[in-house]
Amino acid sequence: MRHILRGEQRAGNPPPIGKAALIASAGGQRGYADWTNPDHRLRRLLSEFIGMAGLTFILSGGAAILAKYGGHAISPWERGLVLSVISGLWLVVAVYFLGDISAHFNPAATLAFALRRDMEWVMVIAYWVVQFGAAACGSLLARAFFGPEGKLAATMPQPGQHWQAVGFEAVITFGLILMVVNLADGPKLNGPFVPLAVGAYVIAWATMGGPYEGASMNPARSFGPDVALGNLGTWWIYLIGPVIGAIGAVGVAYVLRGPATAGEATAAEGTPLHRGTGKEDTPVASRRPR
Prior knowledge:
By secondary structure, the protein is mainly α. It has a single domain, classed as Glycerol uptake facilitator protein. Helix content is 68%, strand content 0%. It has twelve helices and no strands. The protein has helices at residues 2-10, 18-26, 29-36, 38-69, 76-98, 107-115, 121-146, 162-183, 194-213, 219-229, 237-257, 262-267. Helix 4 packs antiparallel against helix 5, helix 6 (107-115) packs across helix 8 (162-183) and helix 7 packs across helix 10. The longest helix has 32 residues, at 38-69.
C-alpha cells in the first residue's frame, strides 16, 4: 500500500486524506464499513459516555465532599488544586483503558477531529449528544449522593470579566487540543504517553486557572454541573472559548503537520469487533500497510 501512495505522489496526485485515505489504507470499503457498523458505533458512544460521566461525577462529587466533609474551609487555590489533580488522574486512567475505543471526553476535541476530517459529521453530532448527556448524568448523580455543596465544581467567571474568561478558555483549550491532535493517532487517544500528557496538561492549567474562572477547556465539563444546579447563565463562556481554541489549534496543527495521513485515517475506525472466522473478519490492524 505504501508503494501505491508513493506512486500517486510521483504521478503528481496528492495523497488521499479523510475517508479516501481510510478506504485506501484499510484495503477497500470493508474498512470503512467497520467504522459505520452499528455495533461498533455504539461501542464508541458507550466509551464516551463512561469517560465523560466519570469526569463530571468525580469533579462534582469531589467539590461537594470537600465542602461537606473536608473538615474546614479551604482557599480557592487549594480547592482548585485538589479538583485539578483528581480530574487529571481520572483522565489518565480513562484514556488508558478506553483510548483504543474512543476517549475524547470533550466536545472541543471531537470538533477538532471533525475539522481535520478524521470523523464524519453525523457521528460527531452523536458524540456531542452523548458527551453532554453523560456530563449532566455525572453531575446529577453526584448531587443525588452529596447535595449541591461546593457548587458541584461549577465553572464561574469573575464578576464583570465574562469576555476575559472567554479569551482565557480559548488560550488554554488551544494548547490542549493542539497537543492532542499532534499526539493522537487519528481521533484515537491510545498512544503510550498521550494519557499522561493529557492528565499533566489538565492538572497544570486547572491548578493555575481554576481560581480565576474554573479552567474548563471542555464545554461538557461545564455543562454538567450547571445543569445539576439549574443555572446555565454563564455556560456560553465555556462553549465559545473552547470552540475558538479548538478551531485555532486545528489550523496550527495543519501548518505544523499537514492533513491527516492514511495511518491516522485508518485509526478513525477504532478497534472493530470480530465475531466470525472468515476472511472478512480479519482484524483491520493486520491489513494496515507495513
